[in-house]
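Q: Could you fold this chain for me?
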Amino acid sequence: MWFVCLSLAGTLAGCAHTLVTFDANGRPTLWQRFDQSSGAAETVGLPGIFAAADLPKRTERRVGQLQIHADFPLAGQHRLIRELDNLRVSISQQLDLPISDEPIHLYLFADLEDYQAFVRRHFPQFPARRACFVETDTTLAVFAAWQERIAEDLRHETTHGYLHAVVPGLPLWLDEGLAEFFELPEASAGLHKRHAAHLAGRLLEGTWQPQLERLEALEDAAAMSQDHYAEAWCWVHWLLRTTPERHRLLEDYLSDLRHDPAAAPLSVRLRETEGPPTVTTAAVRQHVEQIGK
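A: Sure. Below is the predicted structure, expressed as structure tokens.
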């Protein structure tokens, strides 16, 4: 069955994921990720979208795993393209994941209005955003407008592509948490200051507590708030940047997911290594307090 997973980068942190499935007559139906959305609507058929006449194609080149299509001149050695190519190696090394050779198509529009018009024509039910990640069972693609936050958007969406090429069964919270982690410039070492400050403020207000099981229960990205995206990033940062044992725990979880999407969730593994959820919650709270100053 064909499906498509769209992540829409906008003013809110992270993405809103949607699935498009096809009925017995080949008609596409819009779904929220894993859960049918209210008011499901028909949208464009796939994979026909990848043969659309209004796709960018003035510049086409291959850089590593990236197949770039732009409607403006774009050097293959552009520093952002080099950064995105290097991101593949960074993700592989930091998560102990293999490197795939599956192409990730980047469709880049010079003009935001042209990009938004394209999305309205082909995905009329989607809200206006700056970028989106699309996945079918044969194609990984990113659509984006070349604007002032293009680097952040492309790092985020391309991270989805690199991850989905090797871990197709990634849980929603972890998919977004990793994309939020890797959307930052390499020099930041994954420290998302906006998220850290947001969560620290919520702790001071007494209106939020870290709870991994709550994130793991999320299946519909439409239900994800800024708190959810920030917390998903926070758990990833805590796992990757505190102790070697926690880092290895995440690596092992990703390795298991590659072979079995129904592998025991991370919260179960943390209970075995860290203790009851109250202990883990206290540790993550302390982490937020330290990095959110």
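A (continued): The chain has ten helices and eight strands.
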